[in-house]
């Protein structure tokens, strides 16, 4: 029995088939017409089945191929990941240069040298999915484009590429089944039942870490809403330094159940070769802290809230971003994410809890 409803399976199939045919994301509206419920796409994003983009379009993640009901599409994705894993592992083992970046053509050539003949589409798809499997990092003008690739050192630990896909899917679907049961399970980014009861208790605490930039109005609004929910709000900038580095401060206060990361347009950045394409970005330390909490808590317990006209990180897959709006729609979305993480809240009017400072 599938963890997804028929409509959710149909959505996964639509996004997968469109991506295979065009290498482009699928617009939100036709998917909403299939879903007939507003929160379906958010759930599929939270469960790392679809990747939401900031232009209301969606890309497939590995689990979309698993759930789409198309055996051929699944077989192609699985083979592509196995192929790329094997090629990248061989390339890393034969390389004397650390942190080397490769062009797509370099990887295709290495694959031909190893196998004699390969389909470029399989190499491309394997690289597209590869960062989910910690095989590589890739760069391009868009999240679905591949210009350069760096190999993740994790590939050196792969014992068998034949089991790579199945182990990944078992891990992720186990997390989804735990969500459906209402038990505190997680993928390899978090914790499994029975692994460490003390750590699971900590994860289920009502402490919420808030990381923010320089927009005091947005920062205060989010923090106030969290404390109205009866949560113990811990703000990094309000904690004493005690001679600690930023990483040490985060580690000292990381025993929390949830993290809210507020991304506001405080900086401007651009690629060195494209200064005419400057865009507003969040502060670099905020992006660093976002990554640290994803690693500490798991993506399902980290919620970024972003202001309009802001470039979002492009290499964090399966993460649901909430847009901050003056109408306050972000509040119900944030409450939904906190509740889905298993954290109990109270109605805002009943709260008298203050922030930890």
Describe the structure.
Helix 5 packs across helix 6 (104-115) and helix 5 crosses helix 7. This protein folds into 3 domains: 6-67, Arc Repressor Mutant, subunit A (Orthogonal Bundle); 71-165, Arc Repressor Mutant, subunit A (Orthogonal Bundle); 197-350, Flavodoxin domain (Rossmann fold), CATH 3.40.50.360. With 357 residues, the chain is of the alpha/beta class. The protein starts with 5 loop residues before the first helix and ends in a 17-residue tail after the last helix. It has 13 helices and 13 strands. Helix content is 43%, strand content 13%. The strands form 4 sheets. Strands 8-7-9-12-13 form a 5-stranded parallel β-sheet, with helices on both faces. Strands 1-3-2 form a 3-stranded antiparallel β-sheet. 35% of the residues are buried. It is globular. It has helices spanning 6-22, 28-35, 40-46, 62-67, 71-93, 104-115, 120-130, 164-181, 197-203, 216-228, 246-252, 284-297, 329-340, and strands spanning 26-27, 50-52, 57-60, 101-103, 136-139, 148-151, 207-211, 232-235, 258-263, 267-269, 279-281, 302-306, 322-323.
**C-alpha termini separation:** 48 Å
The helicity comes to 40-55%
Overall morphology? globular
Q: Note poorly predicted spans.
A: 184-204, 350-357
Strands side by side in the biggest sheet: 8-7-9-12-13
Helix/strand-derived category reads alpha/beta
Order of helices and strands: HEHHEEHHEHHEEHHEHEHEEEHEEH
Major beta sheet summary = 5 strands, parallel
Please report the total strand number as a whole number: 13
Number of domains: 3
The CATH architecture name of the largest domain reads 3-Layer(aba) Sandwich
The CATH superfamily of the largest domain is identified as Flavodoxin domain
Instruction: Give the helix tally.
Output: 13
The residue-averaged pLDDT reads: 81
Briefly note the CATH topology name of the largest domain: Rossmann fold
Spatial extent as radius of gyration: 21 Å
CATH class of the largest domain: Alpha Beta
Percent in strands: 5-15%
């Amino acid at each position: 029995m599938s963890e997804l409803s028929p409509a959710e399976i149909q959505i996964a199939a639509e996004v997968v088939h469109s991506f295979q045919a065009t290498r482009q994301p699928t617009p939100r509206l036709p998917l909403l017409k299939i879903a007939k419920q507003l929160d379906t796409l958010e759930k599929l994003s939270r469960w790392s089945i679809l990747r939401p983009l900031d232009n209301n379009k969606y890309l497939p993640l590995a689990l979309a191929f698993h759930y789409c009901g198309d055996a051929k599409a699944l077989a192609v994705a699985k083979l592509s990941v196995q192929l790329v894993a094997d090629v990248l592992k061989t390339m890393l083992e034969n390389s004397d240069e650390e942190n080397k970046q490769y062009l797509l053509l370099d990887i295709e050539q290495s694959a031909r040298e190893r196998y004699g003949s390969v389909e470029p589409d399989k190499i491309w798809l394997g690289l597209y999915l590869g960062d989910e499997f910690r095989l590589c990092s890739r760069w391009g003008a868009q999240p679905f484009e591949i210009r350069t690739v760096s190999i993740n050192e994790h590939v050196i630990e792969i014992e068998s590429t034949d089991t790579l896909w199945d182990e990944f899917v078992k891990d992720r679907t186990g997390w989804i089944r735990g969500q459906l049961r209402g038990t505190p399970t997680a993928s390899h980014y978090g914790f499994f039942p029975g692994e460490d009861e003390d750590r699971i208790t900590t994860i289920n605490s009502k402490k919420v870490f808030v990381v923010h930039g320089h927009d005091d109005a947005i920062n205060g609004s989010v923090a106030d809403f969290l404390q109205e929910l009866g949560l113990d709000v811990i703000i990094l900038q309000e904690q004493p330094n005690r001679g600690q580095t930023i990483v040490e401060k985060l580690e000292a206060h990381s025993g929390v159940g949830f993290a809210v990361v507020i991304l506001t347009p405080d900086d401007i950045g651009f690629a060195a070769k494209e200064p005419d394409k400057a865009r507003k970005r969040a502060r670099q330390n905020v992006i660093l802290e976002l990554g640290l909490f994803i690693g500490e808590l798991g993506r399902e317990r980290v919620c970024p809230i972003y202001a309009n006209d802001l470039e979002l990180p492009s290499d964090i897959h399966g993460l649901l971003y909430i847009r901050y709006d003056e109408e306050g729609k972000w509040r119900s979305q944030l409450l939904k994410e906190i509740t889905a993480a298993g954290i109990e809240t109270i109605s805002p009017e009943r709260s008298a809890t203050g922030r930890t400072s």
